[in-house]
Write a structure and sequence with these properties.
2 domains; Helix Hairpins; Rossmann fold; 10 helices; 45% helix
């Protein structure tokens, strides 16, 4: 089965194990891929909406993986029990929602070997939450799929609280230390976006000045990061 570069990048973060739960599975492409490639022996494909679960069931039947993959309907990690699976993946959701899913099922999270997270919005909010709650960041990745960048964070439960600067919530310090091959272009994209916002602020009032100062500070710090690369 061919999958997108985004899903393939997620799959590469999953180590060989007995069982995986894919939360927000949609078409179950990822669990099918993990089973077919021998990454896990069994999987749970879970989604909050009935439509995606039905599509997932159809795809699983077409791939003859009915005995290896079970579909479940429900929100977040509530569809699995503590110690039921080794690994869970939460991908394709906003950072705020991923944070709430973890908070709502803390006992499940604690029982996992690790979680693989892939936010589609607000990765900075999710990263701040992870560090300020003291969770252990095992690894981070960055991929580009159809001209869009996706950040991936692999974590496990821990209790070592760390407070990050705003810029390191936005651009992973780990990706910088690894000199990730596409982090430089990702930073350039961020700078370009902030420049565009800055140039479109026409107001000269006090609030506009505060906003401009904030944007200029972000741009300066992002440019400083480029010196690492």
């Amino acid at each position: 089965m061919d999958i997108s570069e985004r899903l393939e990048c997620i799959a590469k973060m999953v180590e060989k194990c007995d069982s995986v739960a894919d939360i927000g599975t949609d078409h179950a492409y990822l669990p099918i891929y993990l089973i077919k490639n021998g990454v896990c022996r069994r999987a749970i494909a879970s989604d909050i909406n009935k439509g995606p679960v039905e599509k997932a069931k159809l795809n699983i039947r077409m791939e003859n993986e009915d005995e290896s993959i079970e579909c479940r309907l429900g929100p977040g990690l509530t569809t699995i029990l503590p110690n039921e699976v080794n690994v869970a993946i939460i991908a394709g959701m906003g950072g705020n929602l991923i944070r709430d899913i973890i908070e709502d099922s803390m006992e499940v999270f604690k029982s996992l070997d690790y979680l693989v997270l892939q936010p589609v919005q607000n990765p900075d909010i999710l990263r701040r939450y992870i560090y300020e709650r003291g969770y252990e960041v095992i690894d981070e990745e960055l991929c580009k799929d159809e001209n869009r960048y996706y950040e991936l964070i692999k974590i496990r439960y821990g209790n070592k609280i760390e407070h990050l600067e705003d810029t390191y919530c936005e651009i992973s310090k780990l990706l910088l230390e690894k000199k990730h091959p596409i982090v430089k272009e990702y930073i350039f994209l961020k700078i370009k976006r902030y420049d565009t916002i800055l140039n479109n602020i026409r107001d000269n009032g006090e609030m506009a000045k505060v906003r401009k100062d904030s944007l200029n500070e972000k741009i300066v710090k992002l440019k400083e990061m480029l010196r690492w690369l």
